[in-house]
Amino acid sequence: MKKVAVLTSGGDAPGLNACIRAIVRTAYYYEISVIGIKRGYRGLIEKDYCELDPRRVGGIINKGGTILHSSREPRFKHFEFRKKAFETLKELQVDALLVIGGNGSISAANIFAKEFPINVIGIPKTIDNDLYGTDYTIGFDTAVNNAVDAVDKIRDTTISHERIFVVEVMGRDSGFIALDVGIATGADITLIPEYPFPIHIVIQKLIDSYKKGKTFSIIILAEGVAKAQELASVLEQKLKDYAIGGIRYSVLGHIQRGGSPTAFDRNIASRFGAFAVERFLHGEKNFMVAYEKGEIKTKPLEIPFGKVKKPDLEVFELTKKLTI
Ligand code: F6P
Q: For the chain, which terminal residue's Cβ has fewer other Cβ atoms within 10 angstroms, N or C?
């Protein structure tokens, strides 16, 4: 009987449980057994794992987080600990390791696969959607919807009090969440790290809007650009005469990463998981699952290594065209 191990690594993302469930159930359908590694790469180093069977993954498709727990394990950066991890997999007689992860985890998986004779399969997840080589990563849609819900609520206060509101959304080094949230909430200004927008232009734009009769504004700020508090305090100094109800800010933080995954995330996570197992069965090695132009495919595991995925400039330009 073939055997695979699965781990979730890096920041949790809604849809991880749906993916684990799909891996386990597809594997059992083809008579492959599955080991769940706890807390990402840490579980490999510390030999912390459990057997996963189809019953064990029942009732989790609608749950956020990950039943396997997750971590960003710094020791995995060192060869001696990767060797330990390999020894665990050897002891377990595992034929492939499935890593559900984002940038850091998939890069680490690529290094691991090059150093040791183990088939490593990457499945893309991160709410940031910034993994090069795939149009989509598990969790992004839910994070965007969580943020949109929050901004819709903040909008009520913004309009009632005629304020300027800065809302900081996640995206460590990237603006994918901010862009989609900015468009979906009709934000007046969307600031993302990939296409910098000088502060004097932000200020001028707010003044112009005010002069045209707009008495409130929402700014969506990707965390990779600046802290909401800092931006709000600069605006406070410069826009005393224009912000009728004053300036406020809100940092949405981990609210975006939690909660029940959207139908899209449950579906894509299930399809990614099942596809990974089936490609493994077909004998494919050291690949990542990728989503491109609506199609699920495989790509070599090293594809994202050292590369940066950028949002389309056109989409960014749209955020400017749609404001008044
Ligand atoms: O990578 C996902 C992400 O949520 C980023 O958007 C954010 O910068 C980071 O993780 C936060 O990580 P932590 O939960 O460790 O604070």
A: N
128 is catalytic: yes
Quote the ligand 1 centre to 172 CA distance (angstroms). Answer: 6
**For ligand 1, mutation pick of 8, 128, 137 (most atoms within 8 Å of CB):** 128
Q: What is the pLDDT of residues 46-86, one digit of tens each?
A: 999 999 999 999 999 999 999 999 999 999 999 999 999 99
Q: Which residue has the tokens 């399969």?
A: 121
For the CA of 177, the closest atom of ligand 1 is 6
pLDDT digits (tens, 9 = 90+) for 11-40: 999 999 999 999 999 999 999 999 999 999
Q: Which domains does the chain have, with CATH numbers?
A: 3-139+261-300 (3.40.50.450), 143-257 (3.40.50.460)
Q: 263: Cβ–Cβ under 8 A, 6 or more apart, which residues?
A: none
Residue 242 has pLDDT above 90, yes or no: no
Residues with CB under 6 A from ligand 1: 11, 102, 126-128, 170-172, 223, 257
